[in-house]
Input
Amino acid sequence: MEKSEWIWMNGEFVRWDEAKVHVLSHGLHYGTGVFEGIRAYETARGTAIFRHADHLDRLFRSAMSYRLELPHSQAALREATHELIRRNELASCYIRPLAFRGYGNLGLHAHDSPIEMVIAVWPWGAYLGEDSKRTGIRAKVSSWRRTSPDSLIPHAKASGQYLNSILATTEMVQAGYDEAIMLDQRGLVSEGPGENIFVVRDGTIITPPHTASILDGITRRSVIQIGRDLGYTVEERDVARAELYLAEEVFLTGTAAELVPVREIDDIPVGEPGEITRHIQNKFEDALYGRAEEYLEWLDIVEQPSVERPSKVTS
Ligand code: PPE
Output
């Protein structure tokens, strides 16, 4: 990964290489943490954090689900993130806030360990490759089922839960594909290891519902709204595995991945990125880069301090 200079850690700005934890930190042993993945883009109005408030809301809901009382307010975290981006002088970046049980006591009585919080920002290019956003990827249905809602909390973005995504990713890489698609405990389509999924059938855009063990993706929400605003019918309903093969178009959405078309699933061609996928992808990119008036409210602009410019020397 590409380093930046500063990391925000428990209320202070520390050097990237100095942001360290004790090896007996609770979160390292049991995955007791919650996090977010957010992106900031360079726009004509300055660096803009996409749906920042929605991401911070989700962080607090994830924390609540696992009974983690976060020691900083949403407003304080927002301000810390703005300052961090300014200090690192980044025009665009990926933003990773993380709250975890730190060093105190090991064992399953988690409340004995204090909660630590960090925010890191760094430049991170397209997750599945820049080309894949244009040409599409090859996906494989995983043999690993997505975390079921009766043993963990798919709605929470919790550190330990990502072992499930890592099993699916490792299997998919070894088999030679670009990304995995996971089914839920019922055998219906759920999502990717780090993305939500959409299929297009008979011109209708369909995505699995909240009851299919998905993460309530913020890109998913944006795409549902953009799709409807563009006049498409968007349905949240269960998707059978075979519908992946029967679909006219399939695409994945996520903060890191953005919007990635799927051109092949289980070696069955879906085809080149389709018209509806491209239509939504273009509008979504306009929203990210501040080119869509109707979605400007999604952008949290990082204000730059006014710099005193030396007055021009005239001869
Ligand atoms: N499902 C999962 C399991 C998931 O991790 C993500 C985000 C999504 C759906 C899409 O959610 P959203 O980003 O709000 O649209 N995955 C994050 C972490 C990826 C990683 O490799 O780490 C991300 O995209 O930032």
Notes: The mean pLDDT is 96. The first strand starts at residue 6 and ends at 9. The CA atoms of residues 131 and 137 lie 9 Å apart. The two ends are 48 Å apart (CA to CA).
